[in-house]
Design goal:
This protein has 529 residues and is an alpha/beta fold. The protein folds into two domains: 299 residues, ABC transporter type 1, transmembrane domain (ABC transporter transmembrane region fold), CATH 1.20.1560.10; 209 residues, P-loop containing nucleotide triphosphate hydrolases (Rossmann fold, 3-Layer(aba) Sandwich). A hairpin with a 2-residue loop joins strand 1 and strand 2. The two termini are 54 Å apart.
Length: 529
Amino acid sequence: MLYYIRKEWKNNFVTIILTIVCVALQIGTNLLSMQSAQSIIDLNLSRFLVINVISLCCWLLGLLFEGIGTYFRSRAIRFMNNAVRRDLAATMAEKKYEDFHKLDTGELISQFSNDIERIERLAWMPFYQCIEYVSGIVLSIFALITVHWTFLIAAAVNALLMIAAPKMFDKKMKSIGSACTVEQAEGLSHIKDATEGFDVLSLFGKKERFINGISEGSDGIEKPKFRLSSMTAFTGAAVNGVNLICQMLTNVWLGMLVIKGSVFPGAIVGTGNIIGRLSNSLGELAASTLSIAASKPYFDKITAHSYQRTDHAFVPILPITMEDISFHYGEKEVLNHVSLEVQKGGKYALTGPSGCGKSTLLKLLLGWLTDYSGTILFGGKDAKELNVEQTQRQISYIEQDVYLFNTTIRDNITLGDDFTDAQLAEAVKNSALSADLEHMSDGLDTTVGENGSALSGGQKQRVAIARALIHGCQILLVDEGTSALDQANADIVEEHLLANPDLTLLLISHHLSDERKKQFTKVYDLGFQ
């Protein structure tokens, strides 16, 4: 938490200074109210009027500074929330492929939405409140000492009680905060599952299950939030009860001092407000520290504060040799002692029935799956001795289930890199995308929608093919990447890939004609392992 507060120190510094000034002006008006009351007792009209004019100026200044402080506080929260999200993303980016895909999508979304909302409510806002309360405590004590020195002892006793009270609930609040983030992620997962399965449920007349799934997920989100809020309210009430008793005893002591003549009568007006502020600040400070303790589990998820792309030395990865490779998903074996070779510029096909390990083999080459037996050699070097980025940057991958970002076709092809119009035109042509673009009013600048929802399956695959081609990687892995294309367009794409002498191609297909097989350097049939 403190890392982010320090990171945004400029806005936070201004906010803290303005908060202290505002508190000082408010307590100053309480001291002025004592003198105003004493002026009435002394029947001194001129002093009474001057004091009230000064008090009005203090209040107006306080309102101005409070408005400015709110602006800088909101600005700081905005940047801190963005920094937390970025660091959460960096933490995920550091994970291995297998570890990342073990995470539930609902949990991931929850971390970027609900967790940030919790951090703002449980950490950022209480932090700023702590500044206000600490300022109120310190300045109130100084103000009370000017009235009578015994209030210093009363303030110290009050402070000790307020510090001790929340300690009884600290461990419980941390535990509930930790459980809340886990349970809310599960609730979001239920909602996601029901939403993505709506079509299936609708077809089978199970819309009630969709509604129940949303309801179950909703309660999974609201129940832990209710439990956390209830516990926060309970602990706050307990702490405020102690606070109220301390405040009442201090007021009684003030009255006794006035009656004895140890304090001037006018002090009875403003001193009560200062005592109340001191006691309330101590109580609220205790509640805020409990809230901050409950936010700790959210920050514990962050293990990286930046993602640094390392530019490793270029290592030639051709030829590729797979020797005696076996791989299991749990107890299910999908590759059994497979061996193959891929030479530079060669064109290779992987065939075989579903489930024989064709896609798994490509994922092994991409470094996404690492728990295999056997040896994979890139350019004569063991894959396990190389950094995965050294191999991935030289490989493009087109899968059957293409993912497109909710942006333009151009951006989905270039992924933000700079390419010339000629390079774009060449990639569009060789991916058989040209005809589709002619029927789109915005051409390459057409927005594709969420995961390409505005495009057909064939158009999505053509965009993915153009994306792979334009980035010019020397090795292209194609996992049924033309399955959604009509035969004419599929032929255009495959002919281009097979005719490119600089491209090393490894293509998965369930069905290859005898004529097409002749165009490949070699066809590996994984159905005969």
